[in-house]
Amino acid sequence: MKIIIVLIFTAISFLAHSQSRPTVPNPPKVKKSETKTTSSSSSVSVQDSDSSYSFKASFDSDKNDKIKRMLMDHLDEKYLISKGEVLIWKKLDADEIVYGVTFKKGSLKMNVDKELSSGNTFREFEKLGNKLRETISND
Hints:
Strand content: 25-35%
Shape: rod-shaped
Oligomer: single chain
Order of helices and strands: HEEHEEEEH
Helix content: 25-40%
């Protein structure tokens, strides 16, 4: 009887130890992803009355070069006054300002006196203002 008990105990021990442990599956590999969070703020204000057109904008400094290029391409260089990092275009007619544009890092102001300027000048500023608004608002 002792032999049977020892054989049963040995068989149970053998069976218990002979079972392999279940393998734990490795978790799936996840590709690392980076999220770049940037904070940007911009504002554009356009006022169009019977006598004047005004465009004011503030924007992130990463758009400075693009906006500066647009202004240089569209505005007559003979009216440009450069003061360091501030660019000013000013057209006068009999000591009255027909239009004025002031550009500095992150800021732009344009004013057109409709009574002193030709209709064509106003329309060009209006088109430029629309392009600038798209550039400032997008990207």
